[in-house]
Amino acid sequence: ASSMEVVATAKWVRTTARKARLVTGAVQGMPVSEALVVLRFMPRAAANDVLKVIKSAAANAEHNYKLDSSTLRVARVEVEGARALKRARAGSRSHVQNISKKTSHLRAIVTDDLEPSLRRSAAAPAAPAKKAAPAKPAAKTGKTAAAEKTETKAEVADKPKAKRTPAAKPATKPAKAEAVSDAETTTEPADDAAETK
Prior knowledge:
6 helices; two-stranded antiparallel ribbon; single chain; alpha+beta; 19% strand; 59% helix; 3-stranded antiparallel beta sheet
């Protein structure tokens, strides 16, 4: 089924076209329900005027064309600069300061096209699939990590061998043996001296 576009217009809105375009650009393409919430809490003065136009377009679609309000989204909001209201204020030295109060026309277009939402819902499962794909290389890296662990174990096994055969320990054992042998050698002459006596 082809999508239908429903329009609502607000003329002579007391805001500049630039300020209104800053607001409309933020809600373009959103579902109507989300756009209304965003505009309700947006800290801009023109947000209230844009909210009224989008709400009116949604009401037109629901009442005049029997469309489901939950399937509506903001196709676009067109902003046109309108005539400026000329005002004046008293200035210094009897001069007059001119004031230009700009206005604009707003035109909100909502549609019941479901394709964007379907694309978003279809793209949502695709993202986890992509995340799952890198999990396979993670398993490969796990294998390499296991290989690294085996390598580190081999290195650790080699290190204790190096510690088990230090030069200090054998040096101490022969030193004791030498000390004992020296004691024996020293005692033997004493015995010999006793025998000679």
